[in-house]
């Protein structure tokens, strides 16, 4: 009997919302670079679609799992109060001391956050398929190798026509040899991952979505950072495969429930989805309008003209406050995706509860439950089962069932 493909909702849903964004990003990035490799800055239309509607919106999506969730407010109360106050105060002090240091620190925190989210997305499928601890570690190593190698290469080839936030936010002076060695060193790790997946497939174990979620980040980061020196390519390949899956994951893990409770009654899922995403867009537009009118002043065609902040203390305060949503998102993401007693509904929301008694050749196999204290671990996923076993996927449902860069401002 052929095992079904492990999926959070269904293979069709998961491909559409977790895998397809990475494919679209890679194809789009290649099309931009090969069609017009001039390295021109991101147009207003591209900025709206990628940065505003995806990147900044996905940051605000954390609200549905934190401040808008009564259970989370009770279980994470101290963390939800302390985090924005702490990151705001530290941001203010750092920016007051050195704006350059502020953006450099924030850039490296953001890079770590992006990589860890790709690790988390992949580990969802390690857990879903009940794979071994060794396979879990190999998946983590492969994601890190495929993303950090391009970043190290980037450091060795500064300056580029793109930046994470601002020109100069990366530490320069890394020898080019280090960048080359980083690209070479990732090869055996990725080869080991591919060889292992082939071996598992020959034994009847299928987990194709996991393979995609490991290799697509590597492909996109190489296209956007190493292969091409183009701000538009970097933006497309960096944002879509990170932000879109997160929006879908939050929708499944509490977003639709929170919105449905506010709307009341039984509402068609398109209305619930429109309300879910509409709030995020409104918050994203409001945040970016403040950034542009008070700090950047580079998109007057979208947000009008603003005035310059007259004093460095005032500038530091405004920047620190406007960075709070993003920095809080970085911190809280390390806690709100851990299956366990502090997130009691998460296992069921992501379909892990059904794995407790999955059928494997007529035998019942136990996998970790949401109440098992051994399952609490890093963001987005809990510990896997101790052995590789084919997992059953939930029934298929629709969405209802379920140069100086100016593109990467805070909110990304």
3D architecture notes:
The protein has helices at 11-35, 44-60, 70-75, 77-97, 99-128, 133-155, 176-202, 208-227, 231-263, 269-296, 300-303, 312-332, 346-349, and strands at residues 358-360, 363-365. Strand 1 and strand 2 (363-365) form a beta hairpin. With 412 residues, it is an all-alpha fold. Mean pLDDT is 87; it is low at 356-379, 381-398 and 400-407. The protein has a two-stranded antiparallel ribbon with strand order 1-2. It has one domain.
Describe this protein with a few key phrases.
1% strand; 412 residues; two-stranded antiparallel ribbon
Described by its quaternary structure, the protein is single chain
Number of strands: 2
Count of discrete structural domains: 1
Largest sheet: 2 strands, antiparallel
Q: What's the overall geometry?
A: globular
Q: Tally the helices: what do you get?
A: 13
| Low-pLDDT segments | 356-379, 381-398, 400-407
The value of Rg in angstroms is 21 Å
Average of per-residue pLDDT values: 87
| Order of strands across the main sheet | 1-2
Cα separation of the termini: 44 Å
Structural class: mainly alpha
> What's the helical proportion of residues?
55-70%
Order of helices and strands: HHHHHHHHHHHHHEE
């Amino acid at each position: 009997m052929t095992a079904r493909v492990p999926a959070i909702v269904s293979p069709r849903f998961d491909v559409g919302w977790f895998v397809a964004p990475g494919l679209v990003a890679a194809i789009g990035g290649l099309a931009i670079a090969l069609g017009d490799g001039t390295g021109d800055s991101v147009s207003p239309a591209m900025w709206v679609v990628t940065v505003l509607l995806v990147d900044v919106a996905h940051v605000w999506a954390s609200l549905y799992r934190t401040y808008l969730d009564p259970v989370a407010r009770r279980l994470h109360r101290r963390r939800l109060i302390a985090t924005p106050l702490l990151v705001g105060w530290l941001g203010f002090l750092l920016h007051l001391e050195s704006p350059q240091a502020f953006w450099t620190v924030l850039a490296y925190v953001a890079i770590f956050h992006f990589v860890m989210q790709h690790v988390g997305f992949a580990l969802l499928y390690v857990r879903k398929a009940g794979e071994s601890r060794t396979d879990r570690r190999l998946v983590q190593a492969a994601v890190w190798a495929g993303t950090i190698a391009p970043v190290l290469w980037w450091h060795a080839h500064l300056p580029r026509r793109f930046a994470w936030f601002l020109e100069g936010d990366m530490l320069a002076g890394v020898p080019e040899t280090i960048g080359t060695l980083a690209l070479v060193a990732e090869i055996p790790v990725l080869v080991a991952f591919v060889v292992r997946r082939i071996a598992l497939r020959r034994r009847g174990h299928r987990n194709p979505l996991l393979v995609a979620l490991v290799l697509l980040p590597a492909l996109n980061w190489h296209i956007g950072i190493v292969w091409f020196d183009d701000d538009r390519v970097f933006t497309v390949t960096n944002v879509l495969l990170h932000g879109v899956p997160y929006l879908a994951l939050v929708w499944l893990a509490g977003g639709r429930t929170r919105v449905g409770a506010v709307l009341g009654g039984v509402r068609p899922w398109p209305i619930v989805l429109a309300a879910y995403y509409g709030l995020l867009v409104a918050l994203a537009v409001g945040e970016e309008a403040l950034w542009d009118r008070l700090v950047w002043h580079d998109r007057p065609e979208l947000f009008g003209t603003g005035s310059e902040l007259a004093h460095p203390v005032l500038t530091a305060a405004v920047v620190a406050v406007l960075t709070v949503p993003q920095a809080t998102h970085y911190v809280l993401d390390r806690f709100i995706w851990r299956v366990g007693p502090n997130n009691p509904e998460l296992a069921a929301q992501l379909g892990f509860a059904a794995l407790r008694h999955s059928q494997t050749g007529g035998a019942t196999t136990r996998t970790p439950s949401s109440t098992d204290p051994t399952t609490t671990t890093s963001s987005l996923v809990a510990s896997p089962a101790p052995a590789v076993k084919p997992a059953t996927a939930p029934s298929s449902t629709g969405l209802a069932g379920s140069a100086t860069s100016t593109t990467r401002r805070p909110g990304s």
